[in-house]
Specification:
single chain; 2 domains; globular; alpha/beta; 6 helices; about 230 residues
Length: about 230
């Protein structure tokens, strides 16, 4: 990713390029979007401008483009961005993104990025969301469900991709941070990913958004994983 070194506690194995945060490019090109485009579409009007932060290989980008959104897709991995089609792409770390005076109808921060183990990174991510959303616009944030770190190991099937996804463990490494191990099993390939993730209570999550100038509007999914936030215009 933009020449950055591998991050502490973030590793990955498997075929093809692995980004410094442990993400396998080919893996993320294979995974399906699931219900995420529909969740975004439930609150973002057709034809709106969308800033997708941490787009990866276009797993969600491509369905959004197909739905008629004008997508600007941001990632700090050039290998990931090479896989994105139909959207404007920007190579940048999210926390240092510079798009001048541009503003968007909606900003999407998915992939549980809000759980970054580094406070300064999380603060930078959320401030970028606030900076680039229009007044009255939408910020959609994906966070961990209440049971994300319990009942491990567990698995689920991504039938559309032909993959079994297993969360193997979440071992504490201090200060509310866990080192999470996951694996992705296809008939013809196998990947692993290890990353560090900070637990955020409901109260702390809302505090983090508030510190960035955002306020929670409502949850968009019954499990509370997708949250709609708005600019705090007080």
């Amino acid at each position: 990713m933009s020449g950055r070194l591998t991050r502490q506690g973030h590793t990955g194995t498997g075929p093809g390029a692995i980004t410094p945060d442990g993400c396998a490019v080919e893996l993320y090109a294979r995974l399906s979007a699931g219900a995420e485009p529909e969740v975004i579409g439930s609150v973002v009007p057709p034809g709106a401008s969308v800033l997708e932060l941490g787009c990866g290989a276009g797993r969600v980008t491509h369905p959004l483009v197909a739905l008629g959104y004008e997508v600007t897709a941001v990632d700090e991995s050039p290998q990931m961005l090479e896989r994105v089609r139909g959207a404007r792409t920007v190579l940048s770390a999210i926390e240092s993104l510079d798009l001048g005076q541009e503003r968007f109808d909606a900003v999407v921060l998915g992939s549980f990025l809000v759980h970054s183990s580094e406070h300064r990174v999380r603060e930078g991510l959320l401030r970028t969301c606030r900076r680039y959303v229009k007044d009255g616009g939408s910020v959609l944030v994906q966070r961990e469900g209440a049971d994300y770190r319990t009942g491990l190991p567990r698995e689920r099937e991504d039938a559309a991709a032909g993959c079994v996804i297993r969360i193997l463990s979440a071992e504490p490494v201090g200060d509310s941070v866990d080192e999470v191990r996951a694996e992705y099993v296809f008939e013809d390939a196998h990947w692993t990913q290890t990353f560090r993730s900070r637990q955020l209570s409901e109260e702390r999550f809302e505090e983090c958004l508030g510190e960035a100038g955002l306020v929670v509007d409502r949850c968009l999914t019954p499990d509370g994983v997708w949250v709609l936030a708005r600019p705090d215009e007080r």
